[in-house]
Amino acid sequence: QVQLVESGGGLVQAGGSLRLSCAASRSIFSNMGWYRQAPGKQRELVAVINSGGSATYADSVKGRFTISRDNAKNMVYLQMNNLKPEDTAVYYCNVVSLYSQIYWGQGTQVTVSS
To answer: Can you state the percent helix, strand and coil of the chain, rounding each to 5?
Structure first.
């Protein structure tokens, strides 16, 4: 079993920045990523990064968010700049093992005030 612990969420004004971190209890992952779920909406992909470091972003966050990973530390990060009120959501860390097992973090709240 893999444990994922997220941190870095909080309340920020529009235009501000936050950095989310996710620590995994062990390594051996292919993709690592972040999803978010706003009230009344479905969970959606924000960004994902593969083991080679290639990243994919949702159109709504391109140019504002940057995903990165540190394989030595079993960490994945999401740097969020120029935050907008519509970015308000619970953000979830997601990892996929080399055996295609999927794990989720408990979620961290991000609230952007206008």
So the answer is: 5, 55, 40
Q: What is the band of 16 on the pLDDT scale with cuts at 50, 70, 90?
A: very high
Q: Mind listing the pLDDT tens digit for each residue in 63-87?
A: 999 999 999 999 999 999 999 999 9
Compute the distance between CA of residue 53 and CA of residue 17 in angstroms, rounded to an integer: 23
Structure tokens, 76 = 């994945």
**Per-residue pLDDT at 26:** 82
Instruction: Work out the widest C-alpha separation in the chain, in whole angstroms.
Output: 43
DSSP conformational letter for 63: T
Q: How far apart are CA 111 and CA 114, in angstroms?
A: 10
The strand pairing partners of 80, in sequence order, are: 18, 65
Residue 53's region, left for phi above 0, alpha for psi from -120 to 50, else beta, is: left
What is the rounded distance in angstroms from the CA atom of residue 26 to the CA atom of residue 43?
25
For residue 59, give the 3-state DSSP assignment: helix
